[in-house]
Amino acid sequence: MPPSRHSSSHHSSSSSRSHSSHSSSHRSSSSSRSHSSHSSSHHSSSYSSSRGSSLFSSRSNHRSSYTPVRRTRTSQPYGWNDVEHGTVSHFHCSSHDYDYYPQSWTAGDGRHFEEGYYDENGRHYNNMIMAGGTTMLKCDYCGNRMVYQWQEGALPTCDKCGAQFQVDITDKQEPEAAYGGYSGGSTGGLSRTLKRILVLVGVIIALQVFGAILLMILGPGLMQRYEQDPVDPGKSVYSETNEIYVKEIGRTCVLDGTDWYDSTSDCWFYFYDGQWQYWYEGISSDYGDYGWMEYDMGEKAWYIEISDGNWVHLSGSYDTSRLWHMTDEYVNAYE
User: What are the backbone dihedrals phi and psi of residue 106, each rounded to the nearest 5 degrees, phi first?
Assistant: First the structure.
């Protein structure tokens, strides 16, 4: 699915535009669009090499009322996919914040990133040990990965080949530091994350029950829908059940949150700042928090956002035969 935010900018192009009514808003890099944010973190108490599982679980035994403020991150790696590669773990320490990536990967534009720790400035560390906490280390000699519990004065050694780990940086854990840190076997009750999940599940169930009761009261009239216009089958028609018929692809699409969704092409799309943007599963999903795409009618080419405001031509390594776009990229026929 698309990331928790939409792109707030467009790609730049030298192509001439015939739609003067949109010239003031097209490709504006200063506009902003607010979408509901979603966050997810998955934790486990031991290392797993299977994709999609986290290396660490959150601390639940710290009773301090201190809430850490995560440092602003710049020049970060991109193109990571949680489903394909695994879950990124987060650490809040005295000198830096760290994101731990459990394996190396290559972004869609061909740039390669190494596994390990990245601080808030984008600096990479193969191994980081944290006073007062637990981190993941990788042996330079045999490639073995090992969860290392801090022991003052001890030098970490590989539990497989016995070699001493090469440590790039040593930092100190801050109170309530383990955004994704290892709990060290804590049994201090339910973690904050679990409590929040339980509350969220309760709210969802309550909303579902309320919706079912409302539907029974108001009756089937609430579900009135409109498909193709019987007079003009090619006309795109808005539906009161949050569905539209898109003439460019000849099928009905549904509203998924704030975006339209076409299940056949696995594409989310929406009209923003005078232009359509698209998010294709299998292509856009390679770019993590980015990946929204635009089709340039003048160039007859796809652009994709690979980082904040950074739009590039879509790599030729992707199969674009299944991609579709609106006939006029500057007109929204569904409002």
Answer: -120, 125
